[in-house]
Amino acid sequence: MSQLRLHAEQQYAEELAALARNDSRPRPPSWNLSPWAVLTYIRGGTLEDGTVISEKYVGDRRLVEIAIATLATDRALLLLGVPGTAKTWLAEHLAAAISGDSTLLVQGTAGTSEETLRYGWNYAELLARGPSEAALVPGPILTAMRSGRIARVEELTRIPADVQDTLITLLSEKTLAIPELGREATAEKGFNVIATANNRDRGVNELSSALRRRFNTVVLPVPDSADDEVRIVRNRVAELGRSLEIPAAPPAAEEIRRVVTVFRELRNGVTEDGKTKVKSPTATLSTAEAIAVLNQGLSLAAHFGDGTLTATDVAGGLVGAVVKDPVQDRVVWQEYLETVVKERDGWKDLYRACRKVD
């Protein structure tokens, strides 16, 4: 059976192997690649032997350099930004390039416990023989400490504050006490933590100043230009289309640009030409959601159309992404349709399709 989604180190195994072959620069302890090679893996390029490395992150090169340099020290990295700014995507690829393993992951939720961040127990073994190394079930962070690899903590601000503080001693002392065994686990060189967080969702638990000091924070912005956002969406839609084996032609550049333009204008509260102010909905309208809208449209086109993405295929996902609040957002969306979409040259088909969905 084929996997629905490959981990980064599996999907890009050939690129990582080529980078390792061409990498003669100094590597920090336990790193699979040098910082230069990690940057090339993330930003893309052509190696000396002609191997083309695909671009994984479109954005400020300096931010990626800061993130990599942070992980080469003993300071943890916090990727901060609004939803859809590729925090998880970048964290996964950094872990894959540095450790060759992006699976040491703690997914933060309101129900995340201290045991998830520390360790648990095999209770059958525990009851039979008492506390022992055999009964200990290490979590992703403890596993990363023992092997000198990168651990990831997703949605750090969704974890309850008292559980977050479990990380303070771990990040400052690089040790984890296991009182049941009368010992402590110490981190091997190469161990570090990449956390992601955003403060736009409800239920956010602010980080304490003590914990925040343990991280070097890199803020990931939304794409600066429409061209950058279109490029991100085009690449990810094509990649996901291949992975999901959607039997449809890749979306035309015009359809991608239209979806991206709608998202950017509603997000920024003004049209791209700066001439018309528009109201913003409650939805985040991130780049990730634009990718989801287009993938849904491709699926519709493939299975219920002629395989070519049209405005009719896009409209349902577009309205669903914008109208999260059925009262407030619907008013914003209808006003945008009438004042912007309806009057824009070449957008009449999108206007009619969206009105039909409404």
Characterise the protein shown here.
- This protein has 358 residues and is an alpha/beta fold.
- The chain has two domains: 8-219, Rossmann fold (3-Layer(aba) Sandwich); 226-357.
- The protein is 48% helix and 12% strand.
- The chain is built from 17 helices and eleven strands.
- The protein has helices at residues 8-11, 13-22, 35-43, 61-71, 87-99, 114-117, 123-129, 140-147, 161-164, 166-173, 209-212, 226-244, 253-268, 287-304, 311-322, 328-341, 348-357, and strands at 45-46, 52-53, 76-80, 105-107, 119-121, 136-138, 150-154, 175-178, 183-186, 192-197, 215-219.
- The strands form four sheets. Strands 4-7-10-3-11 form a five-stranded parallel β-sheet. Strands 1-2 form a two-stranded antiparallel sheet. Strands 5-6 form a two-stranded antiparallel sheet.
- Helix 3 (35-43) packs antiparallel against helix 4.
- The protein starts with 7 loop residues before the first helix and ends with a helix.
- The model has no long low-confidence stretch (mean pLDDT 91).
